[in-house]
Amino acid sequence: MSAIPTPASPSAGRQPINHGRRVVVAWIVLSIIATPLVAIFLGPILPPGNATEQAHGQVIDNTVLTATITPVLCLLVVFFAYTLSTFRAAPATALEDGPPLRNHNGIQVLWVVLTTVVVLFLAGFGTYELLQDGAGGGQGPSPVAVPAGVHRMLQVQVIGQQWNWTYRYPSYGGVETQVLYLPADTWVALNVTSLDVVHSFWAYKLGVKADANPGVDNIAYVKTRGPMSFDLRCAELCGLWHGYMYQTGHIVPQSQFASWIRQQQRLDQPVAKYLPKYARFYYPDPQRRAG
Ligand SMILES: [Cu+2]
Q: Ligand 1 center to residue 273 CA distance, Å?
């Protein structure tokens, strides 16, 4: 007696759903859309801004970093969205363990190679960018990354002390000012030092962060851009009124800077003789000689 033929099941002949391929396709599509959007729209508003060439360079660096991690973020978003929407168990279903995970050599190799390439690329890119005129960082007394082909550079000494910043301009007779003024479109060497404890000169819109240590001349190079004001503050806990060490600095047109510094020299004249002689750095102990 022959068996009774059973009707074909509706799923017979269908390919099983390839979830992995779906996730990869969705990831690639989302990455192709999101990465340029991040670079074009998010990049320009990333910190620190455009007050100096170095700050502008840091915005570009931050844009490259953010665009590089965008596909990684897209993968996480797609993976979680797909998993949560596709493999969600119906409320009445009993909790059940999933199938065991098996080793997958291809994915492991791909993961190691991809992450290694991304990390090495970012390390190389970061090193190259740091060596471009120091990228605004304090380089100590003997800078390694010196801007090439710069013939004129304005020296400005930034002095931290509990709890204020002052500035000296050695090319203008060592005049000391209460506010930081810089001329626009000018290369500036910021010589950061301290009279007492460790401070840190942080003018983020300039792209500058440099430790201020007593007895040390910590040099950071920047080329200013157009006129603008910028915040500066201490970024090293330096005592009771550390939080009070903030000021507003100004990048002004060169002619305005010239008249401002002449005015400062006039104001400074009656007290100039009481100022210590300009030196590259100073020590808290008056018995020790400044450098
Ligand atoms: Cu401080």
A: 27
